[in-house]
Amino acid sequence: MLTAPQLRSLKGTRPITWITAYDVVQAQVAEEAAIDVILVGDSLGMTTLGYESTIPVTLDDMLRHAAMVRRGAPHTMMIVDLPYLTYYNKDIALASAGRIMQQTLANGVKLEGGQAILPVVDALIQEKIPVIGHLGLTPQSVHTMGGYKVQAKSSSAIEELVQDAQALSEHGVSAIVLEGIPDRVAAYVTAHIEAPTIGIGAGPDVDGQVLVFHDCLGLSSSLPKFARPFADIRHAMIAGLQSYRDSVINRTFPQDAESYHLPDSEWEKFIQARENS
Ligand SMILES: Nc1nc(=O)c2c([nH]1)NC[C@@H]1CN(c3ccc(C(=O)N[C@@H](CCC(=O)O)C(=O)O)cc3)CN21
Ligand SMILES: CC(C)C(=O)C(=O)O
Ligand SMILES: [Mg+2]
């Protein structure tokens, strides 16, 4: 299993692979595919709980799903998102992250934000909790961003992002997720900080990539522009269920080998006993 210090030292050696996962089966397949890091993202609110944003996701939701993921992937580095309003000051953040570390055996937590959350980042790292940053399109700010819009598109916004990334890196985060920013901005940030950058909608010139599990495997009904479906699992599942349904209706399922059998002698005993009663 990758550790937080190893994650930081992977920068410049080879690209780092991340995927989100929200349950046991997803965790098992991520581990079997040798993905470096599993992120239990608060995107579970959308992919798994059916909400329209990550805002309704609670710490209890994250605890339950991260515990499932850990049981499915005991040997893969697991990072867990701190959800909306669970890290707005040092005390709240320590209590939230403490529960995640102790109850799910996570290897670290991820927080959205830059210079404004440095005191929280310091407090967590002080208590030996590895921290991952998340800058650019930060979905917990959907209401103040005015939607899921590409960020860092003006000179001043780029400067702000670079300073946020430098500050997080200097304060010791193990990596920074860069989401929904222009490719050359992500490349510049990557070249100017020591922490590895993990991109999602941030172009190729970053230290690693992360995708939402459902987007990566073709389970989502719609996709952001940056996501590529590397499989067509939604259609495979529909085809499988249609085939099952057809086989039940035309009585080709279950067959003899899929049924349990009783020896003739025992069956005759049962019939005899009924007739004699
Ligand atoms: N399934 C899924 N995939 C994700 O990548 C994801 C989630 N859910 N939920 C949490 C956040 C929300 N994310 C999103 C959601 C929508 C867009 C989107 O529609 N973007 C527009 C570009 C908008 C612009 O031009 O500024 C697009 O066309 O891709 C982007 C990121 C990324 N995260
Ligand atoms: C998209 C990734 C970076 C995330 O934060 C999530 O899945 O919640
Ligand atoms: Mg998230």
Overview of the structural elements:
- By secondary structure, the chain is an alpha/beta fold.
- It has twelve helices and eight strands.
- It has helices spanning 4-9, 24-32, 44-47, 59-72, 90-104, 118-126, 142-145, 155-170, 183-192, 213-216, 233-249, 264-275; strands at 16-20, 37-40, 77-81, 108-112, 131-136, 175-179, 197-200, 208-211.
- Strands 1-2-3-4-5-6-7-8 form an eight-stranded parallel β-barrel, surrounded by six helices.
- Strand 3 (77-81), helix 5 and strand 4 (108-112) form a beta-alpha-beta unit.
- The chain is elongated, with a radius of gyration of 24 Å.
- Bound molecules: 5,10-methenyl-6,7,8-trihydrofolic acid, 3-methyl-2-oxobutanoic acid and magnesium ion.
Largest sheet: 8 strands, parallel, barrel
Please report the distance between the alpha carbons of the first and last residues. 67 Å
Strand content: 5-15%
Count every beta strand, where a strand is a DSSP E run of 2 or more residues.
8
The ligands found in this model are: 5,10-methenyl-6,7,8-trihydrofolic acid, 3-methyl-2-oxobutanoic acid, magnesium ion
Number of helical elements: 12
